[in-house]
TrEMBL record:
GO MF annotation, one: phosphatase activity
GO terms under cellular component: cytoplasm
InterPro entries membership: His_Pase_superF_clade-1 (IPR013078), His_PPase_superfam (IPR029033), PGM_Phosphatase (IPR050275)
Signal peptide range in chain numbering: 1-18
Keywords per UniProt: Signal
SUPFAM superfamilies in UniProt: Phosphoglycerate mutase-like
Protein name: Phosphomutase-like protein 3
Alphabetized Pfam families for the sequence: His_Phos_1 (PF00300)
Amino acid sequence: MFSTLSTLVVVFVNLAVAAQPNYLPTFTSSKQFFQQSNPLVPEFLVDNSKFGLNNGYTWNDVVSSLNSNQKLFILQRHGEGWHNVAQQDLHIDPISWQCYWSLQKGKDGIEWYDAELTPKGHDEIKQLVNQIKNTTSFPHPDKFYVSPLRRTLETWQETWLNLPHKTATIKEFARELYGIDTESERHDRSYIEQKFPGFDFEPGFQDEDVLWSPVERESLENIYYRAASLLNDIFHDAKDDKVISVVSHGGLLNAILAVVQHRLYSIPTGGLVPVVIEIQDNHKIYPLDHAFTDFFLWCPLAQPNITTQVSDGSTTVTTVSASYSAPSGSSPLSVTAYKTSS
């Protein structure tokens, strides 16, 4: 009886763990075909003219080698956006940028809220398209996934509308590290549908940006969870497809590389990295104990403002806000960092 009860407890515990959204498969990546996947090859020696494909292999060799648990991912970073250059172009010091200007939508005609591509960014995509066209037997993706931010949607259009393609699916979890700064906030679905017609949306995609917060910043824990969840979704959605395109951002792409046990590799704006990724049978919990940080970590110079209020004589509500002295001539800034009740 005791043994049976113990077995049932273990089963229920396992079922409870498996039901958690952060209980996901583990992933690995192959080091066989691409120089950037080999930690023994310095980054500066990678032959980017061939997208890192090792001598002695063809793209057909890569695709034909894939087993049922593997896919060739074309991980593409958006072209240069206005958020990449605004601080430098506007001569804003790092503290003022971090603590004030990054929370605004723009300045002096430069908008970095949900940033669009710069002229250089458009040129980077043109160069990439020419390189793909001139690469013998480059494997055109079977499925396309893209972040909902404007710079990635522009990048997808300017890359794949000029090449063999199918409609891309907009995935919320394909977006950049989000929270506090406005470059990580997306427009609503209605705007995207009007501005970028022709894209599909994943099931359940909300009209409003329900992830972005002006007071919390996503941590590495959460973006690693997002990367694993995104890969898991893609492996199930594109079950019979071999070549997958993901157009995303530096932070999310770095998280994918970490999750699939690939070495850290810098993907420049307008660049792409091919990676053979395998989904494994074993699962693990991706920690979410410290999924978000607050404005005090984003801006260490922020000053706390603590307000305590007694409600109904029994509940004490303490509100902690963060404030930062704005640059001269700018509007004052006050951000509610967190609230506690007792």
